[in-house]
Design the sequence.
């Protein structure tokens, strides 16, 4: 139990610290590297909660896929002029106030709900979709109960691939004419 | 003090707050997209925490779908960004005011 607490607080500090560094760095490459550190922390939280399969998916898809994509795009955009310009938009104080208002609203919700959260009544009996063998359980539910959303997700990915190619492709015919 | 579900909810709230402030304050579209990823990760932490506390696997399946949508969003968003940079030569959100009059 003690090791759980220590790991949770270490990971929480890693996640929140890296997230703050992500949104405050001037250089976008540093932001991306700090975001990778945040994602590693979230994968650790998944492991702590017994979601081993998702921790693997997080590392492979987020860090191996999405962040590499980000870094590729960062290399396509010149950074020299970027580094000399101001980071934050004109309405940054208004935006910060809005952010604190969001925090106040979320805090009210969380504080009100937290009492019932830790005493959820009797835990439901572990059904066929319980958490014993993680990858096996996830796979079984994914390919039976969530089969249609799973196929829709694959179509979504196909559409996203085609859309990304179409949008980032150079329009040769327009530039020639 | 034992680590309970509410700890994870508080962590997820704070992570989402950092993402929201990032979206509201920064000018660079790349950082805006990264802030969206932060918010989606906050959602995933919540889903996993409730999945563990209810001893049900459905939260993890939803989390997989969230990661799928995040991947699609990143691909399309970065494609839009490349097209924008080719046409406008800027990555600053407040300089892209083509639809404003």
Sequence:
């Amino acid at each position: 139990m003690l090791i759980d607490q220590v790991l949770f607080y270490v990971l929480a500090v890693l996640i929140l610290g890296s997230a703050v560094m992500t949104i405050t760095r001037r250089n976008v490459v540093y932001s991306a590297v700090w975001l990778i550190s945040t994602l590693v922390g979230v994968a650790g939280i998944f492991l702590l909660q017994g979601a081993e399969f998702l921790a693997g998916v997080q590392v492979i898809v987020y860090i191996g896929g999405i962040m590499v994509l980000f870094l590729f795009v960062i290399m396509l955009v010149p950074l020299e002029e970027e580094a000399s310009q101001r980071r934050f938009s004109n309405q940054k104080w208004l935006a910060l106030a809005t952010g604190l208002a969001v925090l106040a609203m979320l805090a009210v919700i969380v504080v009100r709900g937290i009492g019932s959260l830790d005493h959820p009544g009797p835990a439901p009996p572990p059904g066929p979709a319980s958490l014993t063998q993680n990858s096996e359980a996830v796979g079984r539910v994914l390919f039976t109960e969530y089969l249609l959303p799973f196929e829709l997700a694959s179509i979504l990915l196909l559409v996203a691939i085609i859309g990304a190619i179409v949008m980032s492709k150079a329009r040769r015919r327009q530039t020639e004419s | 003090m034992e680590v309970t579900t509410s700890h994870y909810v508080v962590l997820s709230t704070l992570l989402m707050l950092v993402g929201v402030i990032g979206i509201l304050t920064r000018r660079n579209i790349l950082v805006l997209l990264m802030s969206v990823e932060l918010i989606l990760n906050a959602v995933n932490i919540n889903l996993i925490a409730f999945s563990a506390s209810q001893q049900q696997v459905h939260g993890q399946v939803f989390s997989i779908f969230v990661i799928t949508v995040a991947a699609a969003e990143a691909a399309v968003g970065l494609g839009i960004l490349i097209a924008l940079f080719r046409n406008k030569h800027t990555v600053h959100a407040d300089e892209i005011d083509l639809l404003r009059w």
